[in-house]
Amino acid sequence: MENTLHIIGGGMAGSEAAWQAAQLGVKVIIHEMRPAVETFAHQTGNLAEMVCSNSFRSDDSEQNAVGLLHWEMRAAGGIIMASADKHRLPAGGALAVDREPFAQWVNDTLHAHPNVTVEYGEITALPEDGHWIIATGPLTSSALGAAIAQETGADALAFFDAIAPIVYAESINMDVAWMQSRYDKGETEEEQKAYLNCPMSKAQYEAFIDALLAADKTEFHEGETAGYFDGCLPIEVMAERGRETLRFGPMKPVGLTNTHKPDEKAYAVVQLRRDNALGTLLNIVGFQTKMKYGAQTEVLRMIPGLEEARFARLGGIHRNTFLNSPTLLDDQMRLKSRPNIRFAGQITGVEGYVESAAMGLLAGRLAAAEIQGRTIETAPQNSAMGALIHHITGGAEAKTFQPMNVNFGLFAPLEDSGIKGGRRGRKDRYKAYTDRAKGEFNQWLEAQS
Ligand SMILES: Cc1cc2nc3c(=O)[nH]c(=O)nc-3n(C[C@H](O)[C@H](O)[C@H](O)COP(=O)(O)OP(=O)(O)OC[C@H]3O[C@@H](n4cnc5c(N)ncnc54)[C@H](O)[C@@H]3O)c2cc1C
């Protein structure tokens, strides 16, 4: 097999993957379709263009999971963080960047690298041999999307995300909510208690519907298809179809007995289900929504039991091409059915510039090692990068898999830390998570040098 690494897509992930591999001495060809073939969101022909906001979110590496991911990417000599630091704008604790010079610098630095070649043109078919990384992002061109779907099966490649909000389990008031599957279905006790239920009275339900109807919503961008699939209608669209629609849909109160008030029949029930193997994250079942983030938090906290809820991610529906990675990829990010092809970036089912670039960084290092005949482990599970890769290639529920931001809910709990639970212990817990992550990430980097 030839020793060149081919990368399809020179966005956040593809640029970072190319840089990592090139820095390790591997010849890289980036295949980028822009500017000849455009997407509805990109405006230039530059590599690593930011398609929307100019923020890389929190830069706090002690108390924030995305800040920790910044730290790890800096430690690994990432080009995306180097450019972000060079083109930083004042934004409090957040890392905001001057978008045009940011992308221009990544573009020029990669073009100038002796190991990197950029070839412009759309790739429309899956490569038969050679070493490849597909990093074509949420707006993968339709021809390539069709070729991927043919390989993976149509069910395993989504063209939209329909994200239900995800809540940190520890932030739910269990004096109000209770665990029970409808009609206690299931063989084991775990299955019979697979759902967390939040009950609503008639007055609470009516107020909730009013708030849903009044909430600010986002619209699809031009060029995005606004046709919803009936299986994943946003809750506000269901409410618009009739005030009772939700009560006969995801909020139906049947088959459930409130363990706190066994004699009281709920008028409606909101159900949450485990979103990761650790059980630290729960998604609100059937609650995909296009409410704006501010409105969404307000409306969702009207749900009894969720008054103090903290959200690992809010809901949304977007044009987004992504794989069912838990079933399709191995932990080296290779397509199980064609191991000469890796995937990286948002198409793997992570969400956000930073997460996408981080998955590019990892794929670039893993591919370079393979080409050079070295074996490296994937990033350690207790690091932010590792928590993400373990989530998308194994920890996430494959059946309900939707794109994920990095967050502390993906981290394995601390053993015997002696740190208090709840809000008071949170600061110490996050510091302990990030200390543990930094130590393990550094060890992982050292093992490669
Ligand atoms: C409209 C929109 C707004 C977003 N806003 C934000 C935001 O504000 N903040 C945030 O953190 N995240 C945002 N995201 C999510 C996501 O993090 C970014 O899209 C991010 O750029 C993903 O990185 P990526 O490398 O996976 O994909 P991209 O950065 O999109 O890079 C993929 C590249 O592949 C190229 N390509 C596609 N198909 C082919 C092909 N067949 N052949 C050759 N090249 C191809 C594309 O031209 C592109 O350059 C947004 C996404 C979208 C769609």
How would you describe this structure to a colleague?
- The chain is an alpha+beta fold and 449 residues long.
- It has two domains: 5-162 and 319-448, FAD/NAD(P)-binding domain; 166-314, Elongation Factor Tu (Ef-tu), domain 3 (Beta Barrel), CATH 2.40.30.
- 33% of the residues lie in helices and 17% in strands.
- The chain is built from 13 helices and 17 strands.
- Helix 2 packs parallel to helix 13 (422-448).
- The mean pLDDT is 93.
- Residues 8-14, 31-34, 39, 41-42, 51-53, 122-123, 135-141, 144, 221, 345-347, 352-353, 356 line the site of flavin-adenine dinucleotide.
- Its EC number is 2.1.1.74.
- Residues 5-374 form the MnmG N-terminal domain.
- One of its GO terms (biological process) is tRNA methylation.
Layout: helices, strands, pairs:
Blueprint: E1 5-8, H1 12-23, E2 28-32, E3 55-58, H2 65-75, H3 79-86, E4 88-89, E5 94-97, H4 99-112, E6 116-120, E7 131-134, H5 142-152, E8 157-163, E9 166-168, E10 178-179, H6 189-192, E11 195-200, H7 202-214, H8 235-241, E12 268-274, E13 281-284, H9 293-300, E14 311-313, E15 316-323, H10 325-328, E16 334-335, E17 338-343, H11 353-371, H12 384-395, H13 422-448
Parallel strand pairs: 1-2, 1-7, 2-6, 7-17
Antiparallel strand pairs: 3-5, 4-5, 8-15, 9-13, 9-14, 10-11, 11-12, 12-13, 16-17
